[in-house]
């Protein structure tokens, strides 16, 4: 099904260099980097990604610039006959997964390597670059400093994030043990798979940038592929991306409550920034992802086959809302996203639309995700999902036990903020 997941190239485009390519002094280093990836544990179970790596290694010595095109990769790496990039998204999807997997590899077993495999802008052509740790960025998680008076730049940082998600673990230590949960919760299809399990609560984190003036946030820059647009969108330069610095206070509080609830189900819980969770890491595990796909990139691929999914992503443009691929009578084809200004976001007369998705993966994993466009919506939905009255109504309206176990379920909520409470 056509979609543009915002990877290296727009849907249907070709990435072919204008000049011919010949193996130069970098070819040896490039082959070595690809061989390291193929021999790594990180890629050992990723058959599709290893196909790409093998293809790239063979193409290093090719004099044909078309070897790096989407069509060539689709035809030769994946064996797709009559491959049409306008109709088949496998290359864009798998290349996006490859980049996420590279981040995972260089953050773990490849962390000490002196070079990194990267891709040239708007192409699928790889290169290697030296890795120099950025000493200017402290690895310690910290809160934003006090704002400078009269500088509206700080308003975005103050609204975008409040507390580090990692603090949820510390806060839990001060909480007492929870009583056994009501039976309506433990037997709900929504929660039954999370009993006596190892659960990861992944909290979405907005992308902030640090400059000499402090922190800045722009809703058109969310992913690594958006970094090329940051120079024209950010007001403070030079600025460096900070991926997992801040999380909304509402999400941190909700994560603490979910932690207590899951422990009452005899489960162990780990709280992590959602940007550190890869698609492959979901295999065989129970994962709760809190946040919009702009703060949790793996959701773009995870929801790609669902009826309700994120919209197409374009670097530099605000990424919000979700679309309805099969609207029924009375349903919207797209649930509005944030209009792009702070006043509209805080307008109490405008409702927010939240999406709840429960997916049982073929590899035994199970994922629960919920998000809205307002920062407080995900936390609000999290509170309702452990409310026995609310879950009882949800069980009756959504989960039909007579049809057996479901593979995926989605629920759209209209959250009204015009009252004293949502």
Structure description:
The protein is α+β, with helices and mostly antiparallel strands and 422 residues long. It is 28% helix and 16% strand. It contains 13 helices and 14 strands. The protein has helices at 26-38, 47-59, 70-77, 90-107, 153-160, 167-172, 183-186, 230-233, 249-264, 298-302, 342-345, 377-384, 388-398; strands at 115-119, 126-130, 198-203, 208-211, 214-216, 240-242, 268-273, 286-290, 308-309, 322-324, 334-335, 352-360, 366-371, 408-415. Residues 1-25 and 135-176 have low confidence and may be disordered.
Number of DSSP-assigned strands: 14
Radius of gyration: 22 Å
User: Residue share in helices?
Assistant: 25-40%
Strand content: 15-25%
Please outline the major beta sheet: 6 strands, mixed
SSE arrangement:
Elements: H1 26-38, H2 47-59, H3 70-77, H4 90-107, E1 115-119, E2 126-130, H5 153-160, H6 167-172, H7 183-186, E3 198-203, E4 208-211, E5 214-216, H8 230-233, E6 240-242, H9 249-264, E7 268-273, E8 286-290, H10 298-302, E9 308-309, E10 322-324, E11 334-335, H11 342-345, E12 352-360, E13 366-371, H12 377-384, H13 388-398, E14 408-415
Helix pairs in contact: 1-2, 9-12
Question: What attributes characterize this protein structure?
Answer:
disordered N terminus; alpha+beta; 13 helices; globular; six-stranded mixed β-sheet; 422 residues; three-stranded antiparallel β-sheet; single chain
